[in-house]
Amino acid sequence: NAGVTQTPKFRVLKTGQSMTLLCAQDMNHEYMYWYRQDPGMGLRLIHYSVGEGTTAKGEVPDGYNVSRLKKQNFLLGLESAAPSQTSVYFCASRNLAGGDYNEQFFGPGTRLTVL
Amino acid sequence: DAKTTQPNSMESNEEEPVHLPCNHSTISGTDYIHWYRQLPSQGPEYVIHGLTSNVNNRMASLAIAEDRKSSTLILHRATLRDAAVYYCILRRGSNYKLTFGKGTLLTVNP
Questions:
Q1: Contacts of B97 in chain A (CB under 8 A)
Q2: Residue from the list B44, B97, B101 with its beta carbon closest to the beta carbon of A48
Q3: C-alpha to C-alpha distance for A105 and B31, rounded to whole angstroms
Q4: In this predicted model, what pLDDT tens digit does every residue of A88-110 receive, in sequence order?
C-alpha cells in the first residue's frame, strides 16, 4: 500500500494564480483532512471530509475550497493564491471504525510558495 | 478542546530513556490523550494514545497521572531517528479532529 500520497511535492505560484493539490489514499478510509503548517508552528486544520461527497470547514478555511468526489481522493483548491498561503500542506486520512482508535495517517506534504 | 502545555525543547543522549511531559489540567473525562511526532521534513506520525491507564506499544510508553492532569511519553532507548517534534493532543471522545500545538522539539545527541 502507498498509504497517503500528495501531488505535487513542491510548487511556486504567483499571487492571483490558482492551483489544486491532490491527496490520494489507498486504505479505504472514510475521513480525510487538509492541514497547513507554517514555520515553527503546529498543524492547523483547513477543511475535512467525513465521507465521499461531504466536506466541512476546519480552523482556517478562508481562501481554500475542497472536493471529495471519490472516496480515495481529497482535493484542495486555491482560487486566487496569496503570499499568506505560503506554507507546507499536509493531507491525512483516518478509518471510520475502531472505537476510540483515532490514528490519522499523514502524507509527505506539499511545499507551496506564493510570490 | 482542552489545552495542553509542553516544553518547547528537550535534549537527550542516544540509548538513554527520554521522558516527554505534557500538562493538561483542564482535561475532561472523555478526552483521549494522543501523541504524534513529526520527523524533519515529514508529515506527523501516530505514536500512542490512552484514556486512563498506562499504555505500551512498540514505539513508546504512555504514563498517565492518576488525576489525568498530566501525562508522560516515554521513549525507552532514544535513537538518532527519534529526533523530532512531539505533539501531545487531547481529543474529545466524539470528536474526529486533532488540534496540534507547537509540540516539543527533541534533540538526540550521539
A1: 33, 45, 48, 58
A2: B97
A3: 20
A4: 999 999 987 655 567 899 999 99
